[in-house]
Amino acid sequence: MNREHALRFETEFMPRIVERVMRVLGRGVRVEILPYERAAVPTRLHVNADAHRAGDEHRHVYPYPLNVFLTWDDEEIERLLGAGGEARFLRYLDAMAAKLDAWQGARDVDLATRSQAEPSVLFGGLDFEA
């Protein structure tokens, strides 16, 4: 992906992803856009929080605090920037809560307790399917 498309993705779409992630995950979560550097270091979303260990209502409490990075497939970003991309993106935002829930089970991350099994987790090559 070229730098111009990366910048457009970062300015037009990433702030809305940040807002939705923060709304879904709630208080205490920090979300930061890490800008595109080069092909090997694409635009990333960094989501982190201190672990929440109060109460026994959650099944998982992993040893590391939440420290997750999300990246999207370049071809998916290119499709998003094309015709019909905005409508597709809105459907994606509507599905964000379900997507976050599915991703956590695949990588030993528990969003409710803000904890995970590894020091850092990458959810890479994501798409914009709802």
From TrEMBL:
Pfam family, one: DUF5594
InterPro entries xref list: DUF5594 (IPR040953)
Highest rank taxon of the organism: Bacteria
Residues covered by the DUF5594 domain: 1-129
Protein name, per record: DUF5594 family protein
Organism: Caballeronia jiangsuensis
